[in-house]
Design a protein that fits this description.
Layout lengths: L1 H23 L18 H9 L4 H8 L7 E5 L3 E4 L2 E3 L2 E7 L7 E4 H14 L1
Antiparallel strand pairs: 1-4, 2-3, 4-5
Helix pairs in contact: 3-4
Length: 122
């Protein structure tokens, strides 16, 4: 009984410590919080972008954080234009603050990385 009480107390202390720790981490450094296009670039950004490759909805939600008019794109359905070469989690990029001479298809995480680069580095 004493062991279970000690274990429960340690669990509560660990949960409170994690809650306090998690609340103080800025979202751009927190690996579990969703990425936003205006998050400052950190070493965690690359990991967050990689993680979006498997989640179409999360990637499109991140692209939705782009300010109105800063990105013109169309989400595309997954398809296989050539046998053995599926296109999954892709968007058609029509333009952004930088004009493109033609639209092109890009993976959703690549489109998000481009917009982040454009807004923060160009």
């Amino acid at each position: 009984m004493r062991f279970l009480l000690t274990l429960a107390l340690l669990g509560m202390v660990a949960a409170i410590a994690w809650w306090q720790f998690e609340a103080q981490i800025p979202s751009e450094w927190h690996p579990l919080k969703p990425i936003s296009v205006d998050d400052p670039l950190t070493p965690v950004t690359k990991w967050k972008l990689h993680r979006l490759g498997d989640s179409r909805d999360d990637c499109l939600a991140a692209l939705a954080t782009v300010p109105e008019g800063a990105l013109r794109m169309t989400p595309l359905e997954d398809h296989e234009p050539v046998e053995g070469c599926p296109l999954e989690n892709v968007v058609r990029m029509h333009g952004s603050d930088v004009d493109f001479n033609a639209s092109f298809v890009a993976a959703c995480p690549l489109a998000l990385a481009w917009v982040m680069f454009e807004r923060q580095r160009l």
